Amino acid sequence: MSIELIAPGTPASVRFSFEVFPARTSAAALALGYAVQHLAAAGPEFISVTYGASGSTRDASLDLLKYLRQYTDVVPMAHLTTVGMTPDEVRAVVAETLEADIFDFLALRGDPPRGLREGDAEVAGSLSSVDLIRLITEVRAESTRAPAGGRIAVAVYPNGHPLSRSRSEDIDWLVAKQEAGAKLGITQLFFHADEYLSFAEEAREAGLHIPLLPGMMPVTTLGQLRKVAELAGRPAPRELERGLEAAGGTSPDLGVAHTVELARKLLAGGAPSIHLYTFNRHEQVTAVLRELGHVTPHPLAPPTAAPVDQSRPAKA
Q1: How many CB atoms lie within 10 A of CB 278?
Q2: Straight-line distance from the first to the last Cα atom of the chain, in angstroms, rounded to the nearest whole number
Q3: How confident is the model at residue 276 (pLDDT cuts 50, 70, 90)?
Q4: Which domains does the chain have, with CATH numbers?
Q5: Angstrom distance (rounded) from CA 203 to CA 5
Q6: Overall pTM surpassing 0.85 (yes/no)
Q7: What is each CA distance from 309 to 27, 68, 91, 200, 202, in whole angstroms?
Q8: What CA–CA distance (Å, rounded) separates 32 from 308?
Q9: Quick one: which of 85, 76, 36, 88 has its CA closest to 56?
């Protein structure tokens, strides 16, 4: 089964998407509006928007999704988590998102919010990602606004989910997500091409046919690199770590170069696209695309569109 993931006007050799997160201050919201205009001008397949644990950024996430819909031509994708929320609360969020003409979702169970652990009843009783896929499908079918083509994406863990006992268990769960209705997978961060390529090959052998987008972030600081290593569950590449140390802890060029090299290996190995975690900045990810041969438009003037409206308090 082949699924096309290319945006109109995008060169056939480079397919890509971005992730952003809601701003936490008014100044950050203004900067985010400017960054989003640059990101959208690059012509991504979609831009996904994160969602805080227990719906902690519910209003801010929806505002950002609406901003993407109103002020850009890009497809917005809504992250959605279930930890700490009842099925009825999750259903209401899905319906509200559809009412805003946002039809693509990234379905996640999510991490426990601060103060809770995996064994706590509030966490253990949450809908799984498979349950969430089915719920989104049900609410979409009930909606008079949702088109037939909306996608549901899911998270992929090439280096293993923290609660998983084996790679085969991760792959079995991913296939279960596919059978529930997932159309797309997006990986967590990793450092080496074989981590993705070997996982993808084993998943195909197990019956997976949905596209798997490798997730990457061009780090700019030593602190970012160490945080990514923590999330990836693998040591950071020593050469990159030493380079950042020698540069005084900050070097956007080193992060871009590492990401470009990794992306080239992944695309040559058969990855259908790349997914770039932006950290709400456009400079590094668009530099990656230029190095990969994607010609981005001329730099934008400061946008005339309003900043993202995220002044309302988020619902707990």
Answers
A1: 22
A2: 41
A3: very high
A4: 16-291 (3.20.20.220)
A5: 19
A6: yes
A7: 11, 12, 24, 39, 44
A8: 7
A9: 85
